């Protein structure tokens, strides 16, 4: 059985989540609930769950504040949120899981199953997550890349380019280090959209900070800091030129 705690300031949300878990996730046992970050912190110091459902936005302290006060966590976490765009980006950067309110049955089942399959400890992901939150007004410092073996924590600035590989993405870093990541290129295009990355081709997402030169052609080509030369599709050329003011 998966021992679970629910922390959310909305009584109706906790009740709905409790009912969904009881009906659709029978191998999950709820061992406690709390309606605030302060009460949740006390509960987590008394009980050790396998899985925590944690609301992002709560009065008198957010879910992020709770994690900061807790320090370390030996359990999996599924965040719940209604609207906080920044929170979702921070969560995705660290390959943590989340559910949008109102929570749907299929999404809940998938998130619980993923948490139950999780073998790698979440402590490193949470540490990276908290570091990124402290940089709220600046660029994300690190990104957690899920791999077949576990995950890698990488400085975003070290990412030179990302290349589609079916349902995977090949990350190429400074020093020509390569990491095959078990997520699609489209997901990273959305995730990195505000961090200087440009989709220049159906198969390529590049970090503009690593562009060395542009070579003219139908769409043209870019040479990156790792000396790779990547084709620019004709329909992406204008976006690239605009980004560099050319």
UniProtKB/TrEMBL annotation:
PROSITE patterns: HTH_LYTTR, RESPONSE_REGULATORY. Residues 3-116 form the Response regulatory domain. GO terms for cellular component: cytosol; protein-DNA complex. The keyword DNA-binding applies. GO terms for biological process: regulation of DNA-templated transcription. Residues 150-246 form the HTH LytTR-type domain. The keyword Phosphoprotein applies. GO terms for molecular function: phosphorelay response regulator activity; transcription cis-regulatory region binding. It holds the Pfam family Response_reg. Keywords: DNA-binding, Phosphoprotein. The modification 4-aspartylphosphate is found at residue 55. PANTHER family: REGULATOR OF RPOS (PTHR48111), RESPONSE REGULATOR RECEIVER (PTHR48111:SF69). This is DNA-binding response regulator.
């Amino acid at each position: 059985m998966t021992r679970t705690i629910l922390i959310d300031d909305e009584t109706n949300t906790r009740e709905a989540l409790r009912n969904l878990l009881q009906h659709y996730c029978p191998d999950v046992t709820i061992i406690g609930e709390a309606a605030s970050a302060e009460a949740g912190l006390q509960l987590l110091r008394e009980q050790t769950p396998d899985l925590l459902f944690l609301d992002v936005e709560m009065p008198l302290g957010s879910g992020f504040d709770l994690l900061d006060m807790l320090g370390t966590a030996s359990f999996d976490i599924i965040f719940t949120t209604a609207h906080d765009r920044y929170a979702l980006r921070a969560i995705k950067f660290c390959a943590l899981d989340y559910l949008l309110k109102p929570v749907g049955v299929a999404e809940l089942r998938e998130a619980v199953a993923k948490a139950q399959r999780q073998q790698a400890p979440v402590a490193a992901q949470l540490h990276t997550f908290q570091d990124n939150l402290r940089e709220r007004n600046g660029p994300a410092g690190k990104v957690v890349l899920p791999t077949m073996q576990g995950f890698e924590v990488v400085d975003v600035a070290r990412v030179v380019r990302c290349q589609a590989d079916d349902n995977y993405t090949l990350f190429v870093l400074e020093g020509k280090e390569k990491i095959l990541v078990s997520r699609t290129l489209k997901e990273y295009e959305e995730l990195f959209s505000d961090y200087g990355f440009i989709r220049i081709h159906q198969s390529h997402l590049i970090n503009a900070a690593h562009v060395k030169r542009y070579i003219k052609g139908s769409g043209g080509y870019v040479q990156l800091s790792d000396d790779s030369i990547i084709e620019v599709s004709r329909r992406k050329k204008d976006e690239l030129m605009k980004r560099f003011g050319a």
